[in-house]
Here is the input.
Amino acid sequence: MKTDLSILFQKPEKDKQVILTIEPLAPLSIVSTLPGSYYKSLNKPTKANLCGMFENVMGWHIGMTERRAIFKKMKQIYKKSFKITDFEIEISAVGYTSLLGHLFEIELPLVPTIVARYDDYWTQQLKHDDARHLKGTANLSYQLIKKKRNLPTDDKGKISDKTFTNFLKENNSNFPMYYTSPTPREFIVLEGNYQIKLSISSHLFEHLEKSIKENNIAYLGTNEGWVNLSIKEI
Here is the structure.
């Protein structure tokens, strides 16, 4: 099914006031940065979190190359049709660039009570072009197993990071694109729902309203943070 992006090329006016209700169906972990060793959860979603959730529920799964092309076309149309020469682009701390950030603003968030916090392991996907990648993945082409075992070692029987890096670069296509790393992450359990007042484009509101009715499958924070959404005009 073709993704409908028509709302991105209409006049970007925040001409409606709505209440977005987010009902958590599972513990949530809402993180705005990639701290590395420990992922502490925020108490409420950021604007970038909402952008990602909206894109998800509307079925927008668009890569960065395509996003750049879309932004370029948006700028051309906004300038020619609406005399708009600049508009806000929402970029998260982890580099996610939303197509929707300029179409709504958070006015007043009401945060439910957090009844519990706990830590669990979350599987992070990583990609490097050095020894870390080779050491991180347990999988590689069977054709390389013998070659890896025959890599030169030092006087202590260890393979140097430089040797690992060169081996990876010479055989990159025979390794997984990503490797996994279990990372401790904080989750929160909430009693009640988030209620967030938004100023929003009527075009985005109508698109969201339709998408929620047809396919209310959304997540917040992680792909395990399932939520139920409702949105109404006030």
Observations:
- The first strand starts at residue 16 and ends at 24.
- The longest helix spans residues 64-82.
